[in-house]
Design brief:
Helix 1 crosses helix 4 (70-90), helix 3 (52-65) packs antiparallel against helix 4 and helix 5 packs across helix 7. It is elongated and about 85 Å long. It is built from 10 helices and no strands. The chain folds into 2 domains: 2-90, Orthogonal Bundle (DNA polymerase, domain 1); 102-225, no CATH class. The protein has helices at residues 2-27, 38-46, 52-65, 70-90, 102-142, 148-153, 156-178, 181-192, 201-211, 213-224. With 233 residues, it is an all-alpha fold. Helix content is 75%, strand content 0%.
Length: 233
């Protein structure tokens, strides 16, 4: 569904932004903080490992291959892992719209799409879920009514259930038409399918964020909080 894809775009952009922030901080930590002894430090640096980010990328096995003892390699890698976990735990949701990188812009755009679609898109998404569940149940019950032979083969109870389900399906679809559900689905899709390919959307999202940051942070929390991935600013 388009609404879920729009939410996934927010989650994807948020995780990419977090990963970028973590990598940036890890890249600022010299490898000397994670290895003991000048010889070990020289060995890994000669192999191109210069930061905590490099240590994580190499892994304990890679560090051993570069000349560290198994114990030293495991200790260095575990230290880098703890450092990364600490950085991640301390990350906030602060978004800098004045000097944004590509991940920040992508996140603002994804949030902007959902905010512009508005509450009606969210209600339409819930309506779509309810309608799909009703259709799935009724179509299953109505299956014997798909043909004359299948109705003959079905028992009395199944035939009665099928007749009821067909009637209920007609009523359900008539009610959906009366509530203009197809038109609402179509409009929600149009609103939610705007994205990074829209050339002016990045600037619009940044300007809109500057005007109502609280709504952006609130929406970000609602979309990603189920994953436990959001530290409040």
């Amino acid at each position: 569904m388009d609404h879920e894809r729009a939410c996934d775009a927010v989650r994807t952009a948020w995780h990419a932004l977090r990963r970028d922030r973590i990598d940036t901080e890890l890249a600022a930590v010299p490898v000397a903080r994670l290895v003991r002894g000048a010889a070990d430090g020289q060995a890994v640096q000669a192999a191109g490992v210069r930061t905590a980010r490099d240590v994580l990328d190499a892994g304990a096995a890679g560090l051993e291959h570069m000349g560290l003892s198994p114990r030293s390699a495991r200790r260095a890698h575990a230290g880098a892992r703890r450092l990364a976990d600490g950085i991640e735990a301390d990350l906030s949701a602060h978004l800098d719209a004045d000097d944004p990188g590509p991940h920040t812009v992508a996140l603002l755009v994804a949030l902007h799409v959902l905010l512009e679609a508005g509450a009606d898109a969210d209600r339409t998404a819930h309506l779509a879920g309810e309608l799909a569940a009703d259709l799935e149940r009724l179509l299953g019950d109505a299956e014997p009514a798909a043909g004359y032979l299948s109705m003959l083969r079905a028992g009395t109870d199944l035939r009665e259930n099928a007749r009821y389900a067909v009637t209920a399906l007609r009523s359900l679809m008539a009610a959906a038409e009366q509530r203009k559900v197809p038109a609402r689905f179509a409009q929600a899709s149009v609103d939610l399918l705007r994205g990074p390919d829209d050339p002016g959307l990045g600037l619009s999202a940044r300007a809109d964020f500057a005007h109502r940051p609280g709504q952006y942070y609130g929406l970000l929390a609602r979309v990603v909080e189920s994953e436990g991935a959001l530290a409040r600013p």
